[in-house]
Amino acid sequence: MEEIKRLIAENKPEEAIRLLDTYLAERPGSDEAWFLLGKAHYKLGNVRLALNSYLRAIEINPESPARAAYDMAIMVLDFCNNDMYYVGSHEIYDLNIHFGRSLPNRDVRPAALYPIG
Question: Does the reported pTM lie above 0.70?
């Protein structure tokens, strides 16, 4: 694991992913490995793969640091992609339930589900 952490820190996520794939094939129950796989994917900009890896780590160990990484990644997505949502007073879409996470209470609906116009 230390070598994998070093590779991620040295901005060599492709190499880390290769080692993690091998490691996880033998030890699929390692929440630390899933967390590190998420970090490596996130460094490459593969946000969906990162989030999935974080969720797998959280499934295995709810106290995993992947929880904080997942929450932070979601916050970044919410900030960067706020044009995907719009404020409305009708049919409030409860993102807390949909995504299973805490968000500030606000009238927000995903535009993809409720197109404008």
Answer: no
